[in-house]
C-alpha cells in the first residue's frame, strides 16, 4: 500500500543518516587524532631544537636581565619537552619528532641576527628579543591549537598539560616585552 510504503521509506531514511553520521564522526575523530599526533611531533621537534639553540642565545646576550630570562626559559623548555613526552605516553605512542621547518627558520634567523650585530650592544639584545618573541608566538599558536584539539577529542589530561605550557609561553612572551621596553629606555637615557 502506498501509505505504509511511504511510512517505511520515511522510517528507513530517518534511520540511515543517524548510522552514517556515527561512522562519519568516528572517521573524523580518527582524522583529528592523526592531525593531533602530527602537530605533536612538530612541536616536539621544535622544543628539542630550542633546548639546543637557547644556550647560544643566552651566551650571545648582553644584559644580565636577558641572559637570566633566556636561561630561565631554557629550563622551562626542558619541562615542555618532558610534558610532550608524557602526552605521547598518554596516547600510547613513542615520542618522535618531525622536523618543524618554521622553527628551523626562526632559529636560523636568530643566529643570523646575532652574527649581524656587535657583541656587548643593546642592539644585539633587541635582535635576540625580536627573534625570541617570534619563537614564542609560534609556540603560543601551536599549543593553543593542540589544546583545542585535545579538548575536542576529550583528552582532558593532555589538554591540561598543553594549557600549562601555553601559559608559560605567554608569560615568557610578556617578560620579553618588559625587557625590550627597559632595554630601549636604558639606551635612550644613555644617549
Ligand atoms: Fe616551549
Ligand atoms: Fe618558549
UniProtKB/TrEMBL annotation:
<feature type="compositionally biased region" description="Low complexity">
    <location>
        <begin position="1"/>
        <end position="15"/>
    </location>
</feature>
<dbReference type="InterPro" id="IPR009078">
    <property type="entry name" value="Ferritin-like_SF"/>
</dbReference>
<dbReference type="InterPro" id="IPR012347">
    <property type="entry name" value="Ferritin-like"/>
</dbReference>
<dbReference type="InterPro" id="IPR010287">
    <property type="entry name" value="DUF892_YciF-like"/>
</dbReference>
<feature type="region of interest" description="Disordered">
    <location>
        <begin position="1"/>
        <end position="27"/>
    </location>
</feature>
<dbReference type="Pfam" id="PF05974">
    <property type="entry name" value="DUF892"/>
</dbReference>
<dbReference type="InterPro" id="IPR047114">
    <property type="entry name" value="YciF"/>
</dbReference>
<protein>
    <submittedName>
        <fullName>Ferritin-like metal-binding protein YciE</fullName>
    </submittedName>
</protein>
